[in-house]
Structure formats: structure tokens, C-alpha cells
Amino acid sequence: MTILTDRIDDRCAWTATTIDDPASWTTALSADCLDELEHVVSELGDSDPTHLRTSAADLPLCAAQLAPVRQELDLGRGFALVDHLDEARFGRSGAVTAYWAVGQLLGRPFEQDVQCTLLYDVRDTGRSVTGGARFSVTRAESTFHTDNAFNDELPDFVGLLSLRTARDGGRSQLISACALYNELLEQSVDLEPLHGTFWFDRRGQHGADEAPVAARHLYCWDGSELSMRYMGYYIQVGQERAGEALSPEQVASLEAIEEVLRRPQMRVEFDLHPGQMMFTNNHWILHNRTAFTDHAEADDKRHYVRLWLSRG
User: Fold this and answer.
1) How far apart are CA 89 and CA 33, in angstroms?
2) Most exposed residue of 30, 149, 280, 290, measured as fewest CB within 10 angstroms of its CB?
3) How close are the terminal C-alpha atoms of the chain, in Å?
């Protein structure tokens, strides 16, 4: 295990006061790119969008416009917003198809659950986190986390397409795990537990012959990129299910992390509007969705669609 002992001074280690101007976070798809996507949607028709395979050769104008987005995900602030898959133009299902095509220009989609779902619906199902559900299918605040922290393969990027927003709440919040690490260094928090393993509850996302919990490193440093796996609640449940009490050093590490995550100056937040896409680097961007109150009508209820992407 290699322990990082120096501050990270790259653009990835931003805070609310040091990050670039919010106007630069958003890329508005050009008319030519939207024309390319509309052609793809028209050609696919009512077929399952996940059967569609696209590349830069198929969508050259979109690929050229999204190249800087991929650069920001890899080497910049670690997140980007992309406008605008207008439902009036694409229809709701067409917007999902266009989103699927855009995602493939940034990475390779892979399965998000044991059912091998590639396009995952993020909406309240009435289920409870304490009853074993993932936060993504509830209206509870998700708390800051990285996706799939409990399983072997970590998505490099996470995509979200907004189709419908909540009546109240449901704001997107992001924190740089690199800036978080710098703060922990500043506070002289013990580094060894930060790079050690914790038991994560797997939320039922495992095979019948696999354990319901998994030991995962919290922080990993490969010499060039810092990667964090984190979901405080899943660690709490995982340790209990594994029958392993946290050591005093581990408790102190988690408490230090949560204290920094509560600081407003560490995060950016915004509302993701219908037709907007958000992409984040899942190695060092922690994301949260605040609790929300939904609309009464089924068609108006909050609905996002999630993509997991590998760099490919």
C-alpha cells in the first residue's frame, strides 16, 4: 500500500472558493451535434437504446465537442454539465437514446446491478434504505459518496440525465475527494486508516455464492491519481454485517471525513434541469443528492437516468 503524504495541488483539488467559474461547467451541444443525435434517434426508432453502439466515427461533430468534456473529467475539475436534450425535440425516450449515444463518446457503459442494467432509473420507488434499498431508489438524502464503492469494478465516470425534477429539494452537490484529502492532511489525520480497508454492505448486488459485504480500501494512490471509495452508511452496515467493530483509528478517520464533508465551503451545488446531463469522475468526485418532496402525478415525478462508464 502506497500512502500519499503530499498535498494535491492540481485542478482536481478544488473547493467552492477556488473552482473555476460556474459558466464554464456547462457545454451546450451545438446545432450540428444535435442534428447528429436526432438522426441516431430517428434511425433507432422504438428499439432498445442499449442495442445501439456509437463511436466518434458515427458522431464526429459531437465527438469533437465532447473531447474537452472528457479532458475535464480526466484531468480538470472532474465533472461537467452538458446541455441540452430538449424533450420537445427528442421526446422522453429519444432523449434517453441520445444520452446513451453521448455517453459512449465519453466511455464504455457497463452493468449497474445484478440484473445487468445499463440505463438505470433513479427515482423514488417507496422503498427504504434501512430496509436494504440503494439510496438511488429512495427520496432520502444520499449523503456524499462514490458509486459502486462496494463492488469490484469502480465506474470511472458516472452520468446522470435529468428527465423530471422533484417538487422540492433533490439538489445535486459535489465535493472533490482530492480537496477533502488535503484538508485531512492539514488536520494531521492518521493516514494509515485512510488507505486501509473497511467493510461495505453490498446492498444485495452480488451473486448467490458471494458474501453480502466486501472489504474495500477507502483511499488508493497509484502514483498519479487518487481514488476514493466511500459511502458512510454502507460502511456502518457493512461493519455490522461482517461482525467487525471499527477500530478507534478507523472511527476517528470516518469522523474527520464526515466533519469536512459537512463544510459548505467544500462543495458546489446546483439543480440539474430537464434535458441536462451531468458527468462526474467517480474516483475523486463525491456526489450527494439532497432529500426531496415529489409531485403527486406519476408523470411529473422526479426521474433521472444513470450511466456508469469505464474509460475504455
Assistant:
1) 13
2) 30
3) 26
